[in-house]
Amino acid sequence: MEPLKAISFEIRAPVMSFRKPRYENYQLSYSIPPKTMIAGMIANAYNHGEKFFYEMLKDFQYGIVTLSIRGKFKDLWRAIQGKGEEGGERQVFLREKFFYPHFRIYIRSEKYINEIHDALKNPQNIVYLGLSEELIEISNVQEIVMEPEHTDLVDTIIPLDWMDKVSGMVWRESLENLKAFLPPQVESMVVNYSVEFKGMNRTKREPGESVELLVISGGRFKLKEKIKAYRGLGGDCIIFV
């Protein structure tokens, strides 16, 4: 393994949620922002059109560390289904949200590393993640070189098929309370889409490949054997997905 050039940055906000697909009235949230949401946030900040998002996504990998979450709650509101139609039906919605989440994110890309850096340093649009009304703060954007290492500790995410390699879990001392309301979870996340365009207009979008992850918010996995990972900031041990 060679040293890896990457972009590191942090995101935080008073409130964030990362809605899982296929949930309507009760909208569950992923425990971490998925790859497609991070890529979408960057593409929106870069402001080069929807095509750029799908092109970047083909070459885009990320790693993530949960630095803080102060709580989790459910937001309730009423909305009208079928807006613009006479007699639209009112529905009640519940949505899971995180209170003051803070993440450190690592991104690698062979083709678009400069564009990603420019988008994060000088966003051309208002930056949000998930819901458009939930604005976020981006900080500590930097290009770094991540050194490879063999380690038995991995932060936040591992492939689900590594589950039999896990010997234990270690929480950051300041975030040990997270295990009470955010225990390790299995998350299935879409990582790309099948799309078709006619000119600049998208005519087709279907979910493509997905990845199954085991996620531990605010902690790291202790493995039975050493694996190849990359050393990030603050002692982070990262694998990219």
Explain how this protein is built.
It is a single chain. With 241 residues, this protein is mainly beta. It has helices at 35-46, 50-58, 113-121, 178-181; strands at residues 4-12, 15-16, 26-27, 60-68, 71-81, 89-99, 102-109, 137-159, 166-171, 185-190, 193-198, 201-207, 210-231, 237-238. The strands form three sheets. Strands 1, 4, 7, 8, 9, 10, 13 and 14 form an eight-stranded antiparallel β-sheet that branches. Strands 2, 3, 5 and 6 form a four-stranded mixed β-sheet that branches. The longest helix has 12 residues, at 35-46. The model has no long low-confidence stretch (mean pLDDT 90).
Supply the key terms.
4 helices, mainly beta, Alpha-Beta Plaits, 14 strands, 241 residues, four-stranded mixed sheet, eight-stranded antiparallel sheet, single chain
What's the quick description here?
The protein is mainly β and 241 residues long. It has helices at residues 35-46, 50-58, 113-121, 178-181; strands at 4-12, 15-16, 26-27, 60-68, 71-81, 89-99, 102-109, 137-159, 166-171, 185-190, 193-198, 201-207, 210-231, 237-238. The protein contains four helices and 14 strands.
